Structures are given as C-alpha cells and as structure tokens.
Amino acid sequence: MASKLDIGEMYKNYVAGVGGNSRSKNAAMATAIGGEFEAFGIIEREMLKHYGLGTDSYLIDIGCGSGRLAMPLAEIQSLKYLGTDIVPSLVEHARAIVKRPDWAFKLVDTLAIPEKDGVADMVCFFSVVTHLLHEQSYIYLEEARRVLKPGGLIVLSFLEFNMAFHWNVFEATVKDARGANQHPLNVFIERNALAAWAAHLHLDVVDIRSGDEAFVPLPQPLTMEDGRVMEGLATWGSLFACCANLLPE
C-alpha cells in the first residue's frame, strides 16, 4: 500500500465545510477536531504527564489539528515539540495560537514522520488511528517506533465495539457509507489487534484504558461545554488510551 494519505482529502473537505458554516474561525477550528477544545486539551496534557512526559521531553504530536494539545503544553518552557497534520488551515491555526517559535508545526501528506531516528521521548496519536485504515495506522506506528529513543513511549486513542457508547459513532459511519453525510472515516480496532501490532513491532504494551475509566489526574476542575464539571480523575470521553514501551530488538 502506498504511504500517501488517500483519505486525507475527505478530512480536508470536512474541515473546509466546518469553516464555511461557522461565524468564528476559532469556533471552526475547535469544531473541526471534535469540540471541547480547552478541556480535552488539558486532559490530553495531563494524560501524557501521567505516562511520563517530562518538562524537558521531546514530544511528537501526530494529527496535532488546530492546537488543542499544544496550547496547554505551551506553558512547559523546556518541552520540545513537533506537531504534524494533513490540513493546512489546522496547522496554520495551531502555529498562530501557540506562539512558540522554538516549536515545529509541519504539514504532511504521507504516513511518514518528518524527524530523525531515535530522538523522541514520546509520540502521541489522539483521534488519528480512528480515521485511518488499519494498514495506514500500522505504517504510522512503524514510523513512531523509528523516531523513538530506547524506552520511549507511544500513546494513542482508539475506538472499540466493546464500549456500548461507541455504537452511535458506528451508526453515523454507516449513514455516511450510504451517502447520507460527508464526515471523516471512523475506524474501529480491537485490543487484540493492537497487541499483535505491538508484538510485530517489538513494542511492549504497558497500559490499555477503557473510555469510561477515570484515571487521568486533573490539576483543577474542568468545565465542559455543556456545563458539566469534571474534577479529580478524568475520563477522555468515548476514546481510549494505549501506551507502549519500546523494547530492544
């Protein structure tokens, strides 16, 4: 399979449509990546810290979108960061709002990570493999393994049928397949598939969390867009986190 992001045009068209229907650029950029821009960004940051992201780590954020994770991370002055995405408007917005000239935001059009071998402490994929074919996700994980230091971590989110509240996502995808709507592709993957990928890539899966499991320590209460307040330990909505530890060959 070619490494070209063949489904990229679908997502670019979706983002363009969201932007055209919004009165505010900021609102469009938040909606384009699923909403809850501020709260989810903080939860993602705290999740990565939970898995060992340090103040002087090098993080590569695949599918950085409009900067949801980068914004709360920007306060960590010594953190090194690379964010990549396939949509120009999202990359431009992230770069503009984060205002970290020492950080890199790069536009990509293939499944390659634009970085040297063995330099990153952590690579994260939030809401990325949920929109890729399995073969494409595997190629991206190969790339993540390549750019990681020994002992580095991969953190990703995924959709699985085991969680009942994910069924509405699948139903929406079925409607899209019938031509009812035009949204990015949603792809489900089961835990045994992730374990098989990890084994073939010489990665050790060290943690898998369900989307309804509260495990992310929050530094302060978070108010969601619907007014709900999340405090203490947070879940991450209808998504899951998987962390893999790099093993020697």
How does this model look, in words?
- With 249 residues, the protein is of the alpha/beta class.
- It has 8 helices and 11 strands.
- The strands form 3 sheets. Strands 3-2-1-4-5-11-6 form a 7-stranded mixed beta sheet, with helices on both faces. The protein has a two-stranded antiparallel sheet with strand order 7-10. It has a two-stranded antiparallel ribbon with strand order 8-9.
- Strand 1 (58-62), helix 4 (70-73) and strand 2 (80-85) form a beta-alpha-beta unit.
- Helix 1 (8-21) packs antiparallel against helix 2.
- The protein is globular and about 45 Å long.
- The protein starts with 7 loop residues before the first helix and ends with a strand.
